[in-house]
Amino acid sequence: MSTESQTFTEKYDLLGCIQCGRCTGGCPVTVRADLNVRRFVYDAYHEEKLEELARLAEIWDCTACHTCAVRCPKGLKPLEVLLGLRTMIIESGKVEPTVRDALQSVLLEGNPWEKSRAARSDWMEGLDVKIAEPGVPVENLFFVCCTIAYDPRVQSVAKNIVGLLNKAGIDYAFLDESETCCGSEVFTLGEEGLFEMLVEDNTELLNEYTAKRIVCLSPHCFTTYKTRYPDLKAEVIHYTQLLEELLREGKLVWKGDLQKKIVFHDPCYLGKQGDVYDEPRALLKSIPGVNLVEFERRRERSLCCEGGGGKMWVESESKKERLAETRIKDAKALEADIVAVACPFCVLTLEDAMKGLGYEEEMRVAEIMELLGEFVEA
Questions:
Q1: CA 102/CA 365 separation, integer angstroms
Q2: C-alpha span between 277 and 266 (Å, rounded)
């Protein structure tokens, strides 16, 4: 066996797999694509098959939701075999233009959306936002996320939390345009070299600030910083964890009520990967009038929306019903008025599915912070 093949085998612990098939059995994508994770792990044992495997379209169907990792009895992460194969394609330069452009944008502008770095903090215009300064202690250093910073649909997440923090008198600060991509989607698209550069640069940047904790607005940033940045000095949390803490301390007071039936969709990057399940639900339950109901597939069994794993830049070849559409149909069956989420990617994919199904007159998709911003006590 060659050194290259041995390295691949060791890196992804292929010899630890017992071929039980629980990964494929639980993979949500298998209902609409020809993705068999167990088979990929098995075939990747063989050096001569690696290049052939890397050329298969199915490696791009993986959403990196981590269901396979949650279900693996050996504690392995089968999905990372697929990410390793993506790396081979990235290194060959034979990638789709959308992937190429997203990665180049991260390198040049610090975000995958081909937006100007100088415009990253434009969402702050007209708001009383406290900006972090190196060496000045701050309890909560906020990291916004590329998608929330640039996409008008989800900028309300950042804007509303600023208003809430100011009214609650919380010690906080945001980064300005110096904030750059955490690399979550760079990693899952397989660009290891760029991701390693981002880890080095972001670690240096964030460690310049004297912060008790780094509060991420996106689960993608939260999980990435928490699990793939070993040298960060500050604790990393998601904003729902901070707000639930403030709620318990009596520092958040809601005005009015919301007489709506709400179902919460567990984002894969917040739940399966971050183990944050109760805090978002506690926040929703705290809003007077809310009737919180549950999907059958919830918490660690939550159905992936297909927004992660770089899928924003890779179109599936499958024409079968998207998982986001299935999720919205499940919400309609529950007669939910609002599908609440705590992830910008989930907002975009689920809302697109809702409109595609023609349910926008009956149902609303809303980020939790979008809802809470409407009920902050003046």
A1: 26
A2: 7
- 208 and 133, same structural domain? yes
- The string of pLDDT tens digits covering residues 270-288 is 999 999 999 999 999 999 9
3-state secondary structure string across the chain: CCHHHHHHHHHCCHHHCCCCCHHHHHCHHHHCCCCCHHHHHHHCCCHHHHHHHHCCHHHHCCCCCCHHHHHCCCCCCCHHHHHHHHHHHHHHCCCCHHHHHHHHHHHHHCCCCCCCHHHCCHHHCCCCCCECCCCCCEEEEEECCHHHHHCCCCHHHHHHHHHHHHHHCCCEEECCCCCCCCCHHHHHHCCHHHHHHHHHHHHHHHCCCCEEEEEECCHHHHHHHHHHCCCCCCEEEEHHHHHHHHHHCCCCCECCCCCCEEEECCCCCCCCCCCCCHHHHHHHHHCCCCEEECCCCCHHHCCCCCCCCCHHHCCCCCCCCCHHHHHHHHHHHCCCCEEEECCHHHHHHHHHHHHHHCCCCCCEEEEHHHHHCCCECC
Where among 196, 230, 247 does a domain terminate? 247
Percentage of the chain lying above the pLDDT 70 cut: 98
Q: What is the CATH number of the domain that holds 269?
A: 3.40.50
CA distance 211 to 184: 22
Give residues with Cβ within 8 angstroms of 118, minimum separation 6.
Answer: 177
Say how far apart CA 130 and CA 128 lie, in whole Å.
7
Same domain, 127 and 230: yes
Domain end: 65, 92, 119, which one?
A: 92
Q: What is the pLDDT of residues 101-139, one digit of tens each?
A: 999 999 999 999 999 999 999 999 999 999 999 989 999
pLDDT of the residue at 269: 96
pLDDT digits (tens, 9 = 90+) for 146-171: 999 999 999 999 999 999 999 888 99
pLDDT tens-digit readout, 299-346: 999 999 999 998 999 887 777 889 999 999 999 999 999 999 999 999
